Structures are given as C-alpha cells and as structure tokens.
Recover the amino acids of this structure.
C-alpha cells in the first residue's frame, strides 16, 4: 500500500453503509466493511453509543443537499480511544460534528477515526450511553442561546417545542443561567418532561393565546428570548410574545415562507437568529462540549435518559431510524458493540 508520509495504514471496521438516498418505505441501512484511513494526527475511537438524530435520518432520506454518497451516517458519539497518541489511549470520550455522517463517514459504526485534537474526555458523571446521546440537542441549544447573546439573569425565556430534546436542553441551559421566568409550549397539555433547576410553566398552545398569556404573566414585558424549535407554526405568536429587544432563535421549520410584519419587527428592535449545527465541525463542537462540561459535572445539567429498549445494535439500525422519524420523545442510541 503506497501511502503519503503522514498517513498510516488504514483500519477496517463494520459500519452502516448508505450508497444513495433511501425512501421512507424502503429505509435500508446495510452493514458493510469500511476502510478508515488514519493519519499521524488522528486517533481511533471504539464507539460505545451513538445517538440517532432526526438530521441523521433525514440525511439518509436525501434531505441534506450537502451530504455526500456513499457514507456512514451519524453525528454523535461516545466511546473509548483504542489507538492514537499514547496519552489518549483508554480514555472514555464524547463528541459530535456537523461534518460527521454528512460530508464524511460518521459515527454509526464500530469505530471512528478523528483528528486527535478534537477528542474530549467525557464528564465522569455521565455513562457512555448518556454521553453518546448529548451531542446535537445540547450543542444546538447552546449555540442558539450563545448567538442570541446568552441568557441574562432575570430574562424571560419562552421555548416553543419545550418537550423536544433541543427544547429541553435550551430550558436546562436557561434555568442554569438564571432566567427569571421560563415558559415552555406544546400543542396539548402535558407536564415538562426534562430537567431544570428553576420553575418551568408549561403552556397549552391549542387552548390559549400564548403571546397574550406571557405578556400578562410578565407585566406586559414579554419574552426576552424566544427559542422556536418548531418554526413556522409558531412564528406569528412568537413574534407577538417578544419583548422590546427580544431575540427569536430558529433551528427548524415546516413551511419555508411565512408572513412577516416588518414594522413590528423594527419597532420592537427585535433580532432573529438562525442556527444550523451542520455548519459546526468536530472541533467547534468540541469547544461547545468543553463549555457544557462543568454543568454536567456539577449536576446543574442532566443527560437525557436512554431506556434499555431505546438502545439498538447496528443490525437493527433501520428500526431505530424509523422510531426517530416517527417522532420519538426519548433519545435513540445505537450500540455498535451489541
């Protein structure tokens, strides 16, 4: 084998191998033998847990135009370093990356080769299974709040889709930062399903005018930060709920075009923030995980529960993807060792 001087001999691993876009009715995720090239700057991680995100499933269905074929999907992971720099071998690590599973082979495999500088030891408070389910939801929530200027002590925070995983993560981060009032919205009445270190009031969107309610409960002030994880269905009511200088964060939508009141926007001195974590590579995600670490180690942040029946071997990955596409409220994880 003729390799460049900085390239070591490749390793072979078992991985999901997707050759072209699938269809919902024929979601085929065959396991193949894949050669992973290593460089002197890389390390090999044996994957212990890899979260299955809606973006993973949508990419397999051809909904991500930046995706390359063929490839191994998967963005999030935890595992153990089995080869690479001596000081990393044996470490239990966690990570995520917008390029993983999209523009290069990802984490739904037995092994992952990645630049050693991107590797981070997981918090000691998290199991490998929990660490492998943190990635995309918490990174998305964190990046949205950061780009919006952060949550200031006493801020009013309103989260549409509050029981979704990004919504739960945003609420955890907001309460940890000292938000004064936190409202979470779902279409129907239900309790808040996640962890928070402050009170969270759940609102039933189908029964009340959310904007009027939030303004009434805040003395007419409104929401300083609106985290809209759903997009177009709540766009109008979210705008009406915003405080002067309020910021609204978007990470998803159903309809691409919506009516927009420009006068209300500039009179309110509002800001819109769009977040696409596919643009964040593994190094940028590692920096975010560095910032999240202290919260998990102190217990201010909690991992998502991953029940045993929501953990799938690679051979049942198609089932796992279908559960995610069906809108599972629980995190779904692949365990390639099973």
């Amino acid at each position: 084998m003729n390799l460049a001087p900085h390239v070591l001999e490749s390793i072979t691993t078992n991985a999901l191998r997707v050759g072209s876009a699938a269809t919902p009715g024929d979601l085929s995720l065959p396991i193949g033998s894949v050669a992973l090239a290593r460089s002197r700057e890389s390390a090999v991680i044996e994957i212990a847990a890899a979260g299955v995100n809606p973006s993973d499933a949508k990419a397999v269905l051809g909904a991500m135009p930046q995706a390359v074929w063929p490839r191994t999907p998967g963005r999030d992971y935890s595992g153990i370093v089995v080869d690479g720099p001596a000081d990393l071998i044996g470490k239990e690590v966690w990570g995520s990356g917008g390029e993983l599973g999209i523009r290069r082979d990802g984490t739904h495999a037995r092994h992952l080769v990645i630049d050693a500088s991107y590797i981070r030891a997981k918090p000691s408070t998290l199991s490998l299974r929990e660490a492998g389910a943190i990635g995309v939801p918490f990174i998305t929530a964190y990046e949205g709040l950061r780009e919006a200027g952060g949550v200031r002590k006493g801020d009013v925070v309103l989260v549409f889709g509050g029981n979704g995983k990004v919504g739960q993560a945003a609420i955890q981060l907001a309460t940890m930062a000292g938000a004064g009032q936190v409202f979470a919205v779902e279409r129907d009445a239900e309790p808040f399903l996640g962890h928070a270190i402050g009170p969270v009031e759940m609102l039933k969107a189908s029964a009340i005018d959310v904007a009027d309610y939030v303004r009434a409960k805040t003395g007419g002030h409104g929401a300083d930060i609106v985290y809209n994880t759903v997009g177009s269905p709540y766009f109008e009511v979210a705008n009406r709920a915003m405080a002067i200088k309020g910021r609204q964060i978007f990470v998803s939508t159903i309809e691409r075009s919506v009516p927009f009141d420009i006068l209300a926007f500039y009179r309110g001195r509002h800001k819109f923030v769009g977040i696409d974590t596919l643009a964040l590579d593994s190094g940028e995600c590692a920096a975010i995980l560095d910032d999240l670490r202290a919260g998990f180690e102190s217990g201010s942040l909690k991992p998502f529960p991953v029940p045993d029946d929501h953990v799938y071997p690679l051979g049942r990955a198609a089932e796992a993807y279908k559960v995610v596409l069906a809108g599972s409220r629980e995190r779904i994880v692949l365990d390639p060792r099973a």
The first strand starts at residue 7 and ends at 16. Residues 110 and 336 are 5 Å apart (CA to CA). The longest helix spans residues 282-298. The radius of gyration is 21 Å.
